[in-house]
Input
Amino acid sequence: MHFASDNSGPVHPKVMAAISAANDGYAMPYGADALMDTVRAQMRALFEAPEAAVYLVATGTAANSLALATLAEPYQTVFCSPVAHIHEDECNAPEFYTGGAKLTLVGDSAKMTPAALTAAIEVEESRGVHGPQRGPVSVTNVTERGTVYTPGEVKALADVAKGYGLAVHLDGARFANAIVATGATPAEMTWKAGVDVVSFGGTKNGLMGVEAVVMFDPKHAWEFELRRKRGAHLFSKHRYLSAQMLAYLDDGLWLEMARAANAANARLVAGLNGVEGVRFLHEPQANMGFAGWSRAGHQRLHDAGAQYYVWEGQLDGADPDAELTARLVCDWSTSAEDIDRFVDLVRG
Amino acid sequence: MHFASDNSGPVHPKVMAAISAANDGYAMPYGADALMDTVRAQMRALFEAPEAAVYLVATGTAANSLALATLAEPYQTVFCSPVAHIHEDECNAPEFYTGGAKLTLVGDSAKMTPAALTAAIEVEESRGVHGPQRGPVSVTNVTERGTVYTPGEVKALADVAKGYGLAVHLDGARFANAIVATGATPAEMTWKAGVDVVSFGGTKNGLMGVEAVVMFDPKHAWEFELRRKRGAHLFSKHRYLSAQMLAYLDDGLWLEMARAANAANARLVAGLNGVEGVRFLHEPQANMGFAGWSRAGHQRLHDAGAQYYVWEGQLDGADPDAELTARLVCDWSTSAEDIDRFVDLVRG
Amino acid sequence: MHFASDNSGPVHPKVMAAISAANDGYAMPYGADALMDTVRAQMRALFEAPEAAVYLVATGTAANSLALATLAEPYQTVFCSPVAHIHEDECNAPEFYTGGAKLTLVGDSAKMTPAALTAAIEVEESRGVHGPQRGPVSVTNVTERGTVYTPGEVKALADVAKGYGLAVHLDGARFANAIVATGATPAEMTWKAGVDVVSFGGTKNGLMGVEAVVMFDPKHAWEFELRRKRGAHLFSKHRYLSAQMLAYLDDGLWLEMARAANAANARLVAGLNGVEGVRFLHEPQANMGFAGWSRAGHQRLHDAGAQYYVWEGQLDGADPDAELTARLVCDWSTSAEDIDRFVDLVRG
Amino acid sequence: MHFASDNSGPVHPKVMAAISAANDGYAMPYGADALMDTVRAQMRALFEAPEAAVYLVATGTAANSLALATLAEPYQTVFCSPVAHIHEDECNAPEFYTGGAKLTLVGDSAKMTPAALTAAIEVEESRGVHGPQRGPVSVTNVTERGTVYTPGEVKALADVAKGYGLAVHLDGARFANAIVATGATPAEMTWKAGVDVVSFGGTKNGLMGVEAVVMFDPKHAWEFELRRKRGAHLFSKHRYLSAQMLAYLDDGLWLEMARAANAANARLVAGLNGVEGVRFLHEPQANMGFAGWSRAGHQRLHDAGAQYYVWEGQLDGADPDAELTARLVCDWSTSAEDIDRFVDLVRG
Output
């Protein structure tokens, strides 16, 4: 019963097979491998973006930080949600990679609204040379609270950004889950909605450790390559990154895994909603949910070895009725048995 | 006939098997996997350093830059060879990770001498607050020219550094090849010789992409973890790094592969030395050599599909007798057949 | 009628005289001038801190950024008010000088409370290596809204910081005005209240351009010197900075000027409070106030050449009764005539 | 007898008078003062560059570092002499301000040659994404060894740079002395020779602490303003910088002072050349020279209170005949009496 994170599950067997298949003799290093040519072509086809620059890195933080570094000057500020991964979970990597840009927190929830974004941008208006300058807007989809932006909602934010001449980055660590949840095409969710650069996640969705950065306007492509190398994120044996991404795209495996993860989440949500006293904090629209129930219920799960984060509250406490909130994440490999057993344990 | 680099060869089958074996269910992320506990214990045993801090990253540039960032302040300078990888081949990553420290180039060859190091350190002496301050010394072994420091030579440099209170870093991207070439133990080559932190390479020696950073004094351990995360080099699915390194250390596979690479290089050197007109620039002591011969010979190799870097000179030129220098690198998988065929083609 | 800022008024004649007096022949450069020895001794006496390290720079942003750079690691976050100068008015200089540290905004007003500070620090608790680490707390006194912390209030914040092992910086761009407003001694307002480093302002209070950084524990003194030089803030002709600061401290000129500024502000506040329809947003406790009145009143002032910032609202608009907020700042040279004339114009 | 540096002499009385004259009532802060408008106009006229962007900062290191930060990307390298101030005397400020760019040392003397520059640029050629990329060329005139580039020599270097598409920066900390020495116009020494940005020094030539940065193509003007603010080098009471620079330009005071300094140096050189056993290391073409003579001669000067740097060798030593090298610098205020007395003491 593992619901701690979609980054602790196994790699899909097809991906493992692709890695093994790539392990044949010599290959050109540093992204000049033949597999990467295919990745690039497939990614451009997937995004209906024949000019896009496509690069691979091994961590989501690298994808986000390098993307932002090409979009933000060090005297600018990046607009994002107060719970954005780039703000809360990257130990100042965006500040490091941008050379010291600031992050301006927009509104008070995981999903930014056009009104909150406009207000935040306006605040940075009147200080001239004294204040940080307006920089890119970074949108996270799926959000860090398990909710999902529709393409229309992304476009509404991007329209605000464009109105101020600002670039738009999409942190798609769970891009596949958002695509499955909305039924949108990759193009609709990104450049057709005004996104300039997307971090196209794979690690949380069945890969070993690969994320793509797709830049719809390739003007920063060479700069990206230099910043990637300077950040120590250019792999010599790059073919093993390419092989993973290729297997991910082949036959829609990326969507198949996201569908499985979202379906597992839906089963878990349905099950928990049938338990009296369970309350979801946000609408769990993809593969992650936040729900509260009694400490006693958590204790039963803990004793049974269930793994997940207690998000608010402490397991060790006196009051068995106190409500503690859990973060529950499913991945492609979550089994129906584990979900049902988990729900039973909450029910008690 | 691939002699371009030891970073373009295949992963050893035992390593691939270990990665596959690790792909079983869930595992704690971010280095908390059980495999990493074993890696840490084995690495400490290997280095006879029970207190050492041990971390894994995926690229050699990350290992070097993060190690230097914990040793150098931004107002200091790092002493290294003018052909050091950290100077020539990391696109300013050390400057980036240290927050802007300088690199001072010592002497004029790949192997630093105590006299040249002393002179370089002394130059930074008299400027007080105006000049960069003296920072760590970084030694590369195997050097970028295929030569090897003995433990005594490393110690002589470290003694100079210690005399000025400076820390010592060892870039061991080809550490295994240096160990095999000298017969030294890992401890003799590092902390017993005065090295504080070593980048213990794996990628160039049969791994997919893993390097260890071993800090003999763990005082900077937590700082290293923070800098690794901030540099976007902390892997969520860390178990696959651990598995590679574990396979590498098990049963001395790391030495077995380095022995094979060094032996291949020796066969290549012996063969080429038997060809009239071939001249080695540096003594090829490990798995890499630099040798010159006529353009006509290079052309024959080129036509036969041999891959290697022409280090000095240009293949396309008029004079067939002009000498061009090649960099030739062997890895664990280089075959005797390829070597012999290569030598035959040089001979013409 | 100049109420735009205390950074646009003239230099006090005694300070100008001291600069001229210092212009005699040669003097040792880079802070080795004899005048600086006296500054250091006087500053230590003033703060009752015989061990303190004392340095001069030319801008408040330099004082703050360099002080924070010695206190914060790049993977940490600095706690400050959302309207702190270091956040709003330094164009990311703290991020630049710290190498990319973050700023965490505490509460929602210019004066931080211990409760809000505790809450902000606690938020940074549970993310381990993923989140930014807790760094120093920066307190601004006089605040950016013209309110003043008592020494007890500073101590209450510092007690929270110390409880978490965090250092405390005090941005005292208007330190003199806070001292005059509270009647505290410099020691009571700083190290006796738990402050580790203070930016001791002079430029806004009658100097040409000098701020002192006083570090009560000199452990970071040499690091500060190196960071100052590296930041290009070490003056060769340093004697002219020393001369200003010496004149400032001599015979309590610094307090005399702050008393004049605070008194001018009090006269202005009293006058405006006597005008119907004028409303102060914050209690103006030192030399700065924020007050609202009708657009018609602002228009009269504008036509008469009065200079100040309209903080909220726009002068050009249709409704003469609409309330616009002004920021009004007095300095040592503000005349009673100008104040009374200003009040008369508001009254209409 | 002060020959230690041109940064330790007094401010010219006309400059002091201008500062005092500027101290009248209120003035717009942050470079919006009316004096700055005149400075800008005069500087553009002086350089025959009506479009040039003109900014003032207080230190030479700030001028150089900010100029380079607008010209160099963090993944590039700056080409300069191995004894350039930006390399030896700025404690890594250029690395700091550029975000971690490297400095590549050209040749082995203070004056770069086109051949050495070409060779250095070519070295950075073949590494693709791995090596630092080619960045701007920085030329120092007067050099750090007291020699002077003619406009033709500057142009020859700039032609090399332009051939590679690289920008050219001129560190003119002693620009006035170079102009006087060569008889060139400011335009001939800069943009007509291919210089893009010049650090136009004032501090070493009779100002209190002001340098101008003149950018002949204003495309980076706003970026410069933001980087200046972020570097904490934007002065609120900017009028006092403007006043100094205005006095400097008025009636050619800047040239008058440089003429005096160069003439003093010529007298000193002539005097010392008349002393047996004195040897100049470089041709002293402006206001600085490096000369060697016996320790006994140095001892006599030391006992008489002469101030200068012993550049090579140590005053305290056994052999009275050992030759020690002195660096001798004259400024506008150096008196003939001091020079003659100095020469007499060397003569013994």
User: Anything to note?
Assistant: The mean pLDDT of chain C is 96. Residues 46 and 186 of chain C are 7 Å apart (CA to CA). The first strand of chain C starts at residue 53 and ends at 57. DSSP finds 14 helices and eleven strands in chain C.
